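Entry 14. Ran structure prediction on the chain below.
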Amino acid sequence: MELNPWRFLREEDLKKFLTDPMNDENAPDRVFIINYLKGQPIALKFLDVGSGTGNMYLTLKNSMLQFEYLGVDKTEKMVEFARKRFPPSGLPQDHSPETKFIHADIYSLPFPDRSWKVVYCRHVLDHLSGYEKALAELARVCDDCLVICLLNQLADKQQIKVIGKPPEQTKQGEFSEHYLNIYPRKPFMEALDKLGFSVKADQLIQVGGYFKFYHLIIARREPTFGEALGEAVFKAAMETEQAWGEVKKVEKVGIYEKGSRVVA
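Output, structure tokens:
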């Protein structure tokens, strides 16, 4: 069963996400991701699937990283709120809210294959009836780095957790009863491998609160045989060109190398 408990929330309820330390721009899992990306030679063309109120956009803005960002969300209220929150600044390089946050479905993302260097999906797969189709779609549009953040740690077997209050006990703006899927670890990791991704980080991030930990998975796309061969040929060509340049330098000054000794 798939439920979208956010569709009933009012704007004042959505504002709670801005100050919730488990969800704001300084949430521990977001900080972990930024620190990882700072150490990687990745061009930050960043797709945020399930962008909500836009907190990850703010995290990136505060990180001093150079990036191109697009947030997508199925809930129109979330998209509207994020657009209001981040109006255009008037700077030429700043995107309009309409191109920064759009309405889209995780099962059918409106982008070509491998069109985003980083694809980030936080607290979305947990709410689906299964991860397989959504994970395949995330992988399809990802060219390099796929980041998945789950509310619950992958387990030995699939479980369903029910959270929230029954509908008759729910006030306006509160989450009604809904389901969280806890997925089995082995098939989930095997699915990433079959989709051509190698896991580089498999981390429990302590966040406190109701969930205590989030499960963060960072996977990188493995190059195909043709891509790996092309990269090897390019590297060899560059090394040859560099070596030939060194030979020309040596000849120019009349010095010849023999073994580890240099003789005139």
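The chain has a mean pLDDT of 78. Will compare against last week's run tomorrow.
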